[in-house]
């Protein structure tokens, strides 16, 4: 166990000495104080990994020290010491936030075990906080990459809307990042610690959508062998994303309207009303107003969803975002494939900005991922970007038409071709590919398991 800083608070000198000696033998740094007032003055001004305090002390007692610690450093575990193991006092301390308690006289082995658990809990809390902050950065509003005026307006709107409980309709062509916007709304809202649940309205048969959304009771239909919560219950307290809302059957649109208005529904096969607190974000790549005119979408549901509309423009209408997006995807896939790039050249950027991108950001991302796999040096060139199927097959010495080839297969062909060109010199091959010798060795071992005849060396 690594060294931790532990504060010991006790008015009895012998107890302080015992704890200091025992904890130092465990490898920890120990600071001792003899009263609650001194402890209160130091907590918050100095960081501790664990606080151990006696319950009964003259003046400021252990419960007051605990209350102060919970206000100043709520993530720091707190162990209370009781003179006679009075269970009522220990329970009260834990109710107020103490991690655990120890009875005097203190057993050395129990002390070691309790301190170890408390410090492990502290480590997990810190790790979870770091991971949550990372997720908020990766999926919050800051995850929206670009410099165009249109994107800046969308970001400004999201900053205003995200903290509010209002439902949102996100529209735009396929591949523009509608789900990313939905996630940004969630992770930048007070609901970020609660679930984000996605439901693709086009992915399920019509007969299953109602059960998927609202859940069902045991025996409600053939195959319903147990009661099951639906997406709305699972998302309660958080956000539900209704992706491709235009594909929802008309019969279910009426039930969805009630949920949006009343925040309540019944499971399939039940008369019991279920209430939920959930934010709804709906996305569509269709013109819902046109769908209403054609009778394929309920007008009242459209107006209920369209309170805060966010329309995402196509990538071709915001070319200023292309350089930032390209750099972002190069870093993302460089990390994934173990390759580090110095830059993307100006010719490649100019080419990317001039493209129509019918698949929008998703298509750009796929092109950049391919370029990261196939680039021959540490700069992404235009030739890495412009490869069509014929040029690509020529580069990797494959057939002229290759159908649905995966990026993993393309990567393998590229690595093996580079090795052949360099007479299987692994050092030179790794250098040209921009990967480490270890990564190359692992790849080759993987290819041998797939049946490739690769000389060992």
Task: Describe the protein.
The protein has 457 residues and is an alpha/beta fold. It has three domains: 5-134, Rossmann fold, CATH 3.40.50; 149-313, 3-Layer(aba) Sandwich (Rossmann fold); 316-449, Orthogonal Bundle (Helicase, Ruva Protein, domain 3), CATH 1.10.8.60. The protein is built from 20 helices and 14 strands. It has helices at 13-25, 36-42, 62-72, 87-95, 108-139, 149-161, 178-187, 206-214, 231-234, 250-262, 288-293, 299-305, 322-337, 346-354, 360-374, 382-385, 389-395, 407-421, 426-433, 437-449, and strands spanning 5-9, 29-33, 50-54, 78-82, 100-103, 168-171, 196-200, 239-243, 264-266, 273-275, 279-284, 309-311, 343-344, 379-380. The strands form four sheets. A five-stranded parallel β-sheet has the order 2-1-3-4-5, sandwiched between helices. The longest helix has 32 residues, at 108-139. The two termini are 41 Å apart. Mean pLDDT is 86; it is low at 387-404.
List keywords for this structure.
Rossmann fold, single chain, alpha/beta, 3 domains, 20 helices, 48% helix, Helicase, Ruva Protein, domain 3
């Amino acid at each position: 166990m690594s060294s931790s800083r532990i504060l010991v608070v006790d008015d009895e000198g012998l107890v302080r000495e015992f704890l200091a000696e025992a904890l130092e033998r465990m490898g920890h740094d120990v600071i001792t104080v003899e009263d609650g007032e001194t402890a209160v003055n130091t907590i918050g001004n100095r960081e501790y990994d664990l606080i151990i305090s006696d319950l009964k002390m003259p003046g400021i007692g252990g419960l007051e020290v605990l209350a102060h610690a919970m206000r100043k450093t709520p993530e720091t575990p707190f162990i209370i010491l009781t003179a006679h193991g009075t269970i009522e006092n220990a329970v009260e301390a834990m109710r107020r936030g103490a991690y655990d308690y120890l009875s005097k006289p203190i057993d050395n082995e129990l002390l070691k075990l309790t301190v170890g658990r408390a410090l492990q809990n502290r480590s997990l809390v810190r790790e979870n906080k770091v991971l949550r902050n990372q997720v908020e950065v990766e999926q919050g509003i800051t995850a929206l990459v670009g410099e165009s005026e249109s994107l800046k307006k969308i970001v400004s709107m999201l900053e205003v809307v995200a903290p509010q409980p209002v439902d949102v309709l996100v529209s735009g062509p396929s591949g523009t990042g509608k789900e990313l916007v939905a996630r940004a709304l969630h992770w930048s809202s007070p609901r970020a610690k609660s679930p984000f649940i996605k439901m693709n309205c086009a992915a399920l048969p019509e007969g299953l959508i109602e059960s998927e959304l609202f859940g069902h009771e045991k025996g409600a239909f053939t195959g319903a062998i147990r009661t099951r919560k639906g997406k709305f219950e699972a998302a309660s307290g958080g956000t539900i994303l209704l992706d491709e809302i235009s594909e929802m059957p008309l019969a279910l649109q009426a039930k969805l309207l009630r949920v949006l208005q009343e925040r309540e529904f019944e499971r399939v096969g039940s008369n019991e009303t279920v209430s939920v607190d959930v934010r709804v974000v709906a996305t569509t790549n269709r013109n819902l107003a046109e769908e209403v005119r054609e009778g394929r979408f309920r007008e009242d549901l459209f107006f209920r969803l369209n309170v805060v509309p966010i329309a995402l423009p196509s990538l071709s209408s915001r070319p200023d975002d292309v350089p930032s997006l390209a750099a972002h995807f190069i870093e993302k896939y460089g990390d994934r494939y173990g390759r580090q790039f110095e830059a993307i050249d100006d010719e490649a950027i100019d080419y990317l900005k001039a493209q129509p991108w019918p698949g929008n950001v998703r298509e750009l991302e796929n092109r950049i991922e391919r370029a990261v796999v196939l680039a021959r040096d540490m700069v992404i060139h235009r030739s890495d970007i412009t490869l069509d199927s014929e040029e690509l097959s020529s580069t990797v010495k494959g057939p002229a038409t290759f159908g649905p080839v995966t990026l993993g297969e393309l990567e393998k062909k590229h690595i093996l071709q580079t090795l052949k060109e360099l007479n299987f010199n692994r050092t030179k091959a790794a250098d040209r590919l921009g990967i480490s010798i270890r990564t190359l060795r692992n790849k080759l071992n993987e290819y041998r398991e797939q049946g490739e005849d690769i000389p060992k060396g």
